User: Fold these one by one.
Assistant:
Number 1:
Amino acid sequence: MMDQASGLRDLVAQKSTGNSKFIAIASGKGGVGKTNFAVNFSYLMANEFKKKILLIDADIGMANVHLFLNRKAKKGIKDLFSGEKIDDVITKVYGFDILMGFSGIDDLFDLDDISIQSIINQLNEISNRYDFVIIDTGAGIDEKVSAFLRASNKSYIITTPEPTAMMDAYALMKSIYNIFGYDKFKVIVNMCRSEQEGENTYNKLKVSCKKFLGIEIELLGTLPFTNNLRQSVRAQKLITMEYPKDSYTQNLRKICQQELSLQEPLEENFWKKLFTLMGKS
Ligand SMILES: Nc1ncnc2c1ncn2[C@@H]1O[C@H](COP(=O)(O)OP(=O)(O)OP(=O)(O)O)[C@@H](O)[C@H]1O
Ligand SMILES: [Mg+2]
């Protein structure tokens, strides 16, 4: 009787949350605010919009999500390779879950097919528990960043108004579109000195994408430059928790609402796709 009841509960739980959406966050240029966006977006989605969120640190060279959340670096995905169970490699923090450390992902490819399939199954199962899986990638445009983007339903491309950041954001979209035909980009302009500066930045990118690539990109929102964010980072706290009325937090709230208003098809098999794109499945 107990078993039946818990089996049913599992089934219901799976049904109500089996619609996770994968969002990859990338930029081209480093230091434009991806990780701060990722942790604060996760916090608001989880705490104000009551969504189940898994944040994955997929910055392979320089995993640092845990630092912004004032947590110790703990187990990561590679511990799955040595038989660790998925629930033990997830850390709970401020109402959402994080999966740290994709470093060592290359070792995955030394495993046999059955072990890889078992890891994919575990990752599928865990992802199904969430409404959104947010993937914070590293700077640059290597094949791993590109695989995370291509396996995701959509990618948020973060830029700032600086020409170098815009150029790298454009280069990232260009290379992934030209090589793979992937065009599910939504742009966020961070560190804006005014709303107008944010819109001008987006418009320039949009015109280049239309003219030279023939693709339409959307603006998801702009985020202001604010000293409160720097302050929060130094104190290893989140701006969204410390300064709920700061314009960064308010604009981020609008981005969450915008995301939640969208009706888009769901990614069926992110992990299988990711590992195939990375060279093994
Ligand atoms: N809106 C903002 N206003 C002021 N400072 C900001 C803003 N967004 C980010 N920063 C600052 O920019 C720096 C880099 O931020 P973050 O680490 O989030 O960037 P990143 O794109 O993840 O970097 P990397 O490419 O190294 O992963 C941090 O010191 C942060 O304080
Ligand atoms: Mg980062």
Number 2:
Amino acid sequence: MSLFLKDQWQQWARQWGATHVPEKGWMHRTERVLGMRKGLLFRVHWGRDEDPGLHVLIRFPSVENVERLRDSLVGDSSLDALPAKGAPRRKMELDSGKKQIVRWNARPEFLLGPTSLVWRRRYALKAPKPAQIQAWVDALIESIVRSTPGFRGRCETCPAGQAQKFVVVDEQPMMMCTTCQQRLMIEGEMAERAYEMTEAQHLNGVLLASGAAIVGGVVWAGVGALTHRVFAMAAIGIGALVAWAYRRGAGRVDAVGRVIGAVLTVSSVALGEVLFYSIWVAQQRPDIGFRFDTGWYAYMFTWAKSPGEEAMPMIFSLVGAWVAMKALEKPKLAAKFEEPSEPEQRKAA
Ligand SMILES: [Zn+2]
């Protein structure tokens, strides 16, 4: 990442009368442009570490038939103006609306939902010029406008409301009437309060999550015995399973819950290793057979004599613990409202 980042999109924002959020700090690109263009809302920014690259979000009033919009975008030859001739749009994915903690497959370059299109493009070394990005965003907006109407001053969450200006909700530009804004804020506050009132059932959470940890350990040992390998994916799966079980049992998650989730994930992998050694001993010495205590002894012996062998399972279990902690973060209940700052003034010609 570049050390001295400076604003690059100001002129563009000014030309379009859009809101420009200037660069802050020096580690990450935080510059963004958001506003309304040809009746649609858009936002352009740089993704962070876990999802790097140029991000373009275009929002439109809810469409009934997402597949049809996708087909028209795929078939629109004007989008050949995008990088790589816009070819990745042929693999455009439809957004299922589900949030994933762990993504197994790569993120699609184009993601289309009933109210938005997200286009992400990674740049390894050189970022594209502002004028180029501006032209791409315009091409996308033009293409969508050809197949679906713009907002026309209407609220997007109720049938009758009027919205003259967009608001920024959870960092996304939205057209929302004042009634809907107030309703959303009150709903958020009530959900927050209800969540704070519920008591975390720690013991229930521990019981269910322990069950999940045992299941995870057995699977870990089984996979190990069959393949003689350890898999990071297995540890991530255990972390996700333990977190899911804890949340079901406890109802509410807190810092204690996150620690429990992490500890049980690490324990689950350790249990898996002990079981794995038990199986191994049983295979080598059928006269001893499968015994948990011999597995435990072999596990401890390995730690004492050649701890390097246990390094990989340990690292993977920590990755799994991190996944569990991420999965047990407090859910976001209230939408975050921001007033968009004043648009950049157009320069008098
Ligand atoms: Zn409304």
Number 3:
Amino acid sequence: MNERPLHTFRGFNMKVTGEPPRPTHVPQRPAWTCRVCGDEWPCNAARENLLAEKQDDPTGTAVLMWTYLESFIFDQGPGPLGDAFERFIAWTRPRGAA
Ligand SMILES: [Zn+2]
């Protein structure tokens, strides 16, 4: 496996905005800790960035996070799915949704 960020696959390219590059909170595989802050990925900054990028498309965020979840399971093996779901998918749901 190479370590290209998954968001560069499947059409999830980030828009070029002309803003200066900021350190991007991306996962360090196969440990799935953040390369920038060292927290369990997705860290709070990564979640905020992902939500900000796709604020009009929460479903797109969930689909993107599902691809990360698949890679996480590939790297770490099967484990408690509820925990992984909370970590990767649950927070992508729009606020107020059931
Ligand atoms: Zn981070």
Number 4:
Amino acid sequence: MNANQENLKILRHSAAHLLAQAISELFPETLLTIGPATEEGFFYDMLPTTNFRDEDLPKIEARMLELANQDYPITHTEISKTEARKLYQNNPFKLELIDNIPGETVGLATQGNFYDLCRGGHVASTGLIKHFKLSGISGAYWRANRDGQALQRIHGTAFPTAQELTDYEEHQAELLKYDHRRLGKQLDLFSFHDEGPGFPFFHPKGKAVINALTAYLRKIQRTHNYQEISTPIVLNEELWHKSGHYQHYKDNMYFCKIDDASYAIKPMNCPGSALVFKTRPRSYRELPLKLAEYGLVHRHELSGVLHGLFRVRSFTQDDAHIYCMVDQVESEVLSIIENTNKVLNKFNFTNIEIALSTKPAKSMGSDELWAKATDALKNALRSAGANYKIQEGEGAFYGPKIEFKIKDSMGREWQCGTVQVDFFLAENFDVVYTTDNDTKTRPVVIHHVIYGSMERFFGILLEHFKGQLPFLIAPVQIKILTITDTQKPYAIDLKQQLEQVGIRVEIDQSSDPISGKIKTAQLDKIPWMIVIGNKEVENKTVTLRYQDGKQEFGISTPKLLADAEIHNK
Ligand SMILES: [Zn+2]
Ligand SMILES: [Zn+2]
């Protein structure tokens, strides 16, 4: 942490105390717990007598400002635990905190007649906390323990200058405006229902986007010799014991009964792929064998953390498993890195961070095997010309991995693609192939995804492009707008020709004037509009209009079809 970050943290933590002071004056019965600084600001967890509502925040903020204007010095003293226990005799949370602090004394921060248990690190007086904002209320648990006492968390942020706070608020407004949940509703793409919390419903237009993302990746997979499979969503529980998922992951899995036997809904696609591999003897000549699967997985998430398409309970992974020899890892990983960069660049993600995670303290497989696989990943990254950082010891116990992190147009980072080398899966499922000297040996398995969760990637794209999805994946790529109904037969013919080359196209059937039709298409964020009047019909041309209002006149049908096909690749 540099000095600036350290100071910001001190300011924000002090703002949390200021919030607690305001609360203790306005709602004296509230039990305070802890109030740390965070990456984005600060929060304070507390137990009120009646739950706070959003409407309370302005009132709390106003009191905070008054207290700031009083410019109380913030002092820090060490007091005996006996004294502290007396101060907090009615607050079981603070008493528990006191018990857990080593030593015989605890720190106490005091401002005016308010005090708070704290180990220190504050600004000198409340007057230095001027530019802050309370941003919301959410649920929390005491000590982040799901079975513990439910609390309320008030979030906020603070900055050293008014300008920084304004910039932050503008950025927040921007995020809210382009929130994918809002865009999803506005553009009729997807919905969520009480009947299936965390399970997204895709409407025709949303499904068209998912299909377009799939089609784009399938094309790349085909040219790289992937073979697509599909495996069941429900599989016997035994399989998940064997794979190790049950042991490590059962709290996030769903189970069901079929004919008295216990089954699990798959949280991952790997075991299914291994069963396909094992259906017949495999020779080294078949390697690398690449099995791709657009697999729907289900994972239990707490209802409190569900968040649109970003955090769901069922999602589709663009999963692939490559079964190969150790010597093939490098060239396979190089090809995956190239494909991943290609896909991410296609969607205007150019700021890609790559991290390589190496052997952790607890791991399986020999040091030699780890060294070989890790070197293969390093060589592949080097050959791809990739800058990467090393996360020493952060690999999974069953092999090293590469992670791709992207930055979107609003500056947020997302982890999407991963490449995971796995020495364990083949062992676990007794997967073997026959070598060139007729012995049996285990392949290395490379798990990889590029989009990660297709649903989440869709959500990221929506926000990244602010709803204006690129031509390739737009649900309706072209909208045909006729000036009057006279041009309808020409429009219908054009639509058919465009559909034949795989373009998603609609005709505006309304009786609106052309300006109204353009407005509608713009609101629907359609990338291309084709305007047809009598002149266009006569000359067998079209006028092409883009979202930004730019127009091209007199385009012939063959040229339009060729252009559309190019943009659809
Ligand atoms: Zn403090
Ligand atoms: Zn896998």
